[in-house]
Amino acid sequence: MAGTYTRDPIVSSSTSDERLRQVIQWVNGKEGWTTTGSVGFDSPIRSLGIKVAASNSLTYSESVAYLNSAANLNRRIRNRLQLSVSNRSIDIIDVESSIEASYNRNAYSLNRQFNQSYVNGTLSGRATWHFAANTSLELDATYRILGQNAFGPMQNILQSDIAVSYLLLRGDGEIHLELKDIFNENLHAAITSDVTFIE
Questions:
Q1: Is a pLDDT exceeding 70 seen at residue 191?
Q2: I need a surface site. Which of 69, 85, 139, 142 has the fewest CB within 10 A?
Q3: Residue ranges of E strands in the chain
């Protein structure tokens, strides 16, 4: 478990007039803090020849921005759960798959119409085949499922990579050829949760 506390942080202060003109400046604000806790475990299942790992992390933070001199308190919660399975015998084939879900919530004391809660998910898999001496082929795929409440419908992201590696100089050197996003479907998606204006 870990936490941070910031005294007199630099925060945004937004001022709007009747003509909807807006001025944003940076000022010293009230204290902000973040706390994070996590727990996890992993265990082999020898009868199946696999290893299972699970983890859960929770983050809570509070920060303040100012809207027309009024303090707008932002509370953020993120809870992340991950489960992965991998094989134990990796001399020839090394395989790992995982599933992850994260719950996110942003709540404001002002502009409450911008409060958000959404769930993102990720499915991923990686396989490495050591098919010859010092030579391996690796496939890697990640499929991100983004919360429709925040990102809109059908905003899912797939990235698939393939790579070939060859070790030389008794393992001190490597030739690595990699093709990223082989289906040309990867996009970048991000969401900014700070509210610095008044409707």
A1: no
A2: 69
A3: 2-6, 10-16, 22-28, 32-45, 50-67, 70-87, 93-108, 116-132, 135-145, 156-168, 173-179
Domain ranges of the chain: 36-179
Contact of 12 with 26, CB cutoff 8 Å: yes
From the list 77, 100, 72, the residue with the least C-alpha distance to 199 is: 72
DSSP 172: T
Mean pLDDT, range 162-183, rounded to an integer: 88
Q: Which two tokens stand for residue 128?
A: 């490495």
Nearest to 179 by CA among 168, 165, 193: 165
- 3-state secondary structure (DSSP) of residue 183: coil
pLDDT in tens, 5-63: 888 888 888 888 777 788 888 888 888 889 999 999 999 999 999 999 999 999 999 98
Interatomic CA distance for residues 55 and 52, integer angstroms: 11
Residue 11 to residues 25, 27, 34, 91: CA-CA distances in angstroms?
8, 6, 15, 53
Q: Strand, helix or coil at 78?
A: strand
